[in-house]
Amino acid sequence: MKLLEGKNCIITGGGGSIGRATARLFLEHGANVVLVDIAAPAGFEKERDRVVTVEADVSKAADAERYVAAAVTRFGAIDVLFCNAGNFGTVAPIEAYPEEVFDAVQAVHVKGTFLAAKHAVPHIRNGGSIVITSSVAGTRGDPGVYGYITAKHAQIGIMRCLAKELAPRGIRVNSIHPGPIDNSFQKSVEDDLGRIIGRDGTQFFDEIIPLGRHGTAEEVAMSVLYLASDMSSFTTGTMLMVDGGMSV
Ligand SMILES: NC(=O)c1ccc[n+]([C@@H]2O[C@H](COP(=O)([O-])OP(=O)(O)OC[C@H]3O[C@@H](n4cnc5c(N)ncnc54)[C@H](O)[C@@H]3O)[C@@H](O)[C@H]2O)c1
After folding, report:
1. pLDDT tens for residues 58-71?
2. Which of 5, 39, 96, 103 is most buried, judged by most C-beta within 10 A?
3. Which fold would CATH assign to domain 8-179+217-241?
């Protein structure tokens, strides 16, 4: 069964690991996709008739307007908005955490999600779906992770406001909360952590994840598909953990 037949979907961070895996799954399920990233995502040439790629910075209002316009021009109304672009920032004690890094991380996750919704919502069909990639980091604190953890908590605030505001139009809004995923984004976090704690950062995470392993981008994509599609038609304002039990 195809779950997104003929649906028009915007994916930010569409050039990254989770974004690409989600795009592939959405395409398998019959969707048209608009992939937004800092550098236009490559590798979708075969699906040219159902894929638009846009080079854009999600933290800039003019870019948000432009990628939404590209989606509307090519496909008409929007059915699914997946706000997924992300950067990590750094880890440092509060007195040493650089202000400009803090701002840069909020700009992508928080302002980027705000701008995506602000510009896309007028074009989202009644009954559509917005999915926001937060993180297990949106549900817990850890020393020194000021930019990222703050941003991932803030996305839940946007998600909840949108869920209530858009419910009268039947537009559902939910967040997903991946735990550590086996990809380069997480690997660089773990390499840094490993240097701080003096042991293998990847192994450290495997030990605190009840399922005992990292997730895959494809596993996250399946949760996004569920929230994007009518399979979750009575689910809005919720936080879906995709974290191997790490938040329990
Ligand atoms: N990898 C993990 O373990 C993990 C865990 C929890 C949550 N997440 C979240 O998942 C999302 C996707 O991350 P990923 O793991 O696929 O990493 P990734 O680095 O492969 O993908 C992130 C993408 O966002 C893009 N991006 C960054 N800043 C941007 C900007 N200003 N404008 C447009 N695009 C921008 C990057 O170019 C990249 O392609 C992020 O929001 C991340 O915080 C990841």
Report:
1. 999 999 999 999 99
2. 103
3. Rossmann fold (3.40.50)
2, two tokens = 């195809």
pTM beyond 0.85: the answer is yes
Ranges of each domain in the chain: 8-179+217-241, 183-214
Burial zone of 11 (CB within 10 Å; 0-12 exposed, 13-18 middle, 19+ buried): buried
Place of tokens 């992300």: 86
Residues taking part in catalysis: 148
Ligand 1 binding pocket, CB closer than 6 Å: 12-13, 15-19, 37-38, 57-59, 84-87, 108, 133, 135, 178, 180-181, 183, 185-186
